[in-house]
Every structure is written in structure tokens, then in C-alpha cells.
Amino acid sequence: MRDGHPSLETLAHWLAGELEHEQVRRELAPHFLEACPICRTLRDEIERLLEESGHWNESVAVLESREAPALLGLLGGGSHGERMRRAEEIQELHTWGVCQLLLRQVREQVFSDPARAVEMAQLAVRLSGHLGAAYDPDWVMDLRARAHAHLGNAHRVLGELKAAEGAFLLAAECLEKGGTGDPRILAEILSLETSLRLDQRRLEEALALVDRVIDLNRETAHRAELGKALLKKGKILQESGDLSGAIEAVQHSLLELADVRQTRLFAYAFHNLFYFLTLAGRFEEAQSMLPEVHDLLGTAGEPLDLLRLRWTEGILAHGLGQTEEAEEAYRTVQREFLRLGKGLDAALVSLNLAVLLWEQGRTDELKEIAAEMMLAFESREVYREALAALALFQRACAEERVTEDLIRHVASASACGGGASGLPRQREPRT
Description:
Elements: H1 8-15, H2 21-35, H3 37-53, H4 58-72, H5 80-89, H6 96-109, H7 114-128, H8 137-158, H9 161-177, H10 183-199, H11 203-220, H12 223-239, H13 243-256, H14 264-279, H15 283-300, H16 303-319, H17 323-339, H18 343-359, H19 363-378, H20 384-398, H21 404-414
Helix pairs in contact: 2-3, 3-4, 4-6, 5-7, 6-7, 6-8, 7-8, 8-9, 8-10, 9-10, 10-11, 10-12, 11-12, 12-13, 12-14, 13-14, 14-15, 14-16, 15-16, 16-17, 17-18, 18-19, 18-21, 19-20, 20-21
């Protein structure tokens, strides 16, 4: 290359068809692309599709990504069983692009419709088992591992923790059998597994996993994913009772996400800092952040995010001694969760309300709250420790011997199904 131009010999070899593909990519393609703004735009689009598809081959990434939506229509309607059968039988569906599209839809719907996300992830698992010799076997193993991991995450969000555990074991088996060793793939899978360990209350394992994810994302210089991992570490530390560590982790997360300030991920991180400061009793600092938290979540968040913010505002008001404001916030959030069919979250906010009522000596109202919480938790797959603690709380309410320590014990035990101390659960943010 002379002054950025290919040499006479290189051009001659290229025109004669004698230049190796890798040499064309290395010496000629950058030069030609830089000369044309339209081609540069197309190159950027190809890079985006490569990233989105998870494939290494440009033609596969472009063609299969564009064909995938129409092919997915071949699954048709009907029951999930019928769609799984079609996924098995229709060979046109056995492509990388269709699997990748399904996994993208799983990520997009896992919080809004986790039951639907489970079905889509099961379809992705089924299809990934039918990718043939046209694909590199190690990349196929990566894809299968990702499909099992996203299935496990969808089961986790649905509250089916045993099914989630089984899916992650299968993901690990895929990586043991093959795979490229791509740190981005490993970070994605371990990040999802971290969320499961957090929900299972296996906090030491969750912390070890998230530290691996942080290291992998630093290795790949993926700042958004690094910020997300630091945000998750903050949540684990908060659940472990290390609020100062949680605050430090989320502050580091915000530094990594500073260049993507308007994203939902930054809004979640900023809200978590507000939340952790509130839990730590640093009420003045938290209160000073409130207008900006509202602005960020109002711009980048979803209605459920604003409801969780209202929950945290209730905790802040409670801490500041504004009991009427706190009770109004708790009851508003409780009603909205029930209206949305989120009985578990309604039960958890009831724990905050229970503390407030106990402090005011309103023990008769605690009995009704205890009964409501028991119904909500019995409908979910939570650990026996939580149910036992709730049963103890219910008996104590009936016998009018409730104490604040008992309420907090119930909250701690109940955290296997939600947030620590019965406080707002933080969702897995989407980038």
C-alpha cells in the first residue's frame, strides 16, 4: 500500500483473479469503501447485521436476517405443540437467521409476556438442533447454548426456577461439547445465569458469576454490557446487605453508560442509585435525584418502571417520616400491581405497608395483608423458607403478636421470589 492506495502488483493480481480473499478484505476493500460514502453506509449496515445475527459470514448475516421474518411466518398459528411440530418438519425454517430472530423476540418479550417468551425460546432450541453442515459446528454449539440460556431466563422470569436450572445445565453442556470460546457469547450466557442465581438466593455464586461477566466485557470493550453487568453486581450486593458496595457498583455502571445517557439502561442505573441511597438512609441525596429520575424514566422507561419508581418514592417518604404520603404510595402501587395481575409484587409492597401499619399500631389491618400475601406466594414457585415465614407471619397477626423483626424476617425470606426486604424488584434491563 502506497499513500493508502494498493500497489500496481496487488491491482494486477486482483484483476487477474489471483488475489486471496483475505488479502482483498485486508488491502482492497477498506480502500474502495472509504472512497464511496454510500458503500460506507452499506458496510455499516452489514456490520450491524453481523452483530445482530451473531454470525461470522457477511452473506449469511445479510440474506438470512432479511429472509427470517417471512420464513418465521411458516410456523403459522395454532397451538404451541403444532408450531413445534412444524418447526421440526419444515426444512426452510432450519436456518441461522430464523433462530436468531426468535431469540431476539424472546429478549424483547421476556418481561412483558414471559409465557410467550418460553414458547419462542423452545422453538429456537428446537430449530437450533436442525442446523446442518452449512454452518460451522462450533458456532452452532454457541447458538444452541444461547437458545437454552434464553429459555432458562424466560422460565426464571415466569417463576419456574427448576425448569430454568435445567435449561442452563443444557446450555453448559453445549459449551462443553464445542463452541468458539467467544467471550461475548460466554458473557451473555453467564449474565443470564447470574440472574437465576440471584433469584435462587445463591448470592455468592451470583457474585462470582457477575465478576466473570465484568471481566469478559472489559476484555471485549463492550461498554453497554459492562455497565449492565456492574448494575447487576450492585443488585447482588444490595441483596447481600452490602449497600455501600451496591452504591459504588452502580456509580461505576453510570460512568460506563455516560455516553448512552438516554437509553433505558442508563435510566435503570440512575433509578437503582436512587433506590440504593434510599435503602441506605441517605434520604437527602436520594431526594435530590428524584426530578432527574422522573425525567429519565419518563423518557426511556416503561409504565411498569414508573410504578416501581412510585414504590421507591413511598419508601423514601416513609424514611423521611411522611407517613401519609408513604401509605398513599404503597396502596396505589399495591392496587396497580393487582390490576396488572402481578400478585407477587403486590404482596411484596404489602410488606412495606405492614411495617408502616405496625409502627402506627394498626394491627387489625395486618391480618388481611397477611392472608393476601399467602395467596400470592402460594401461586408461585418459591422456596419453602418463604412460605414458612409467611405462615408464621399469618399466625402472629391472628394472635396479635407481630413485631418489626418478624416482618423483616418475612421480607428477607420472601426475597427468593422478589426483592430483598420486600422492596422493589429490579428487572433485567434490555439494551
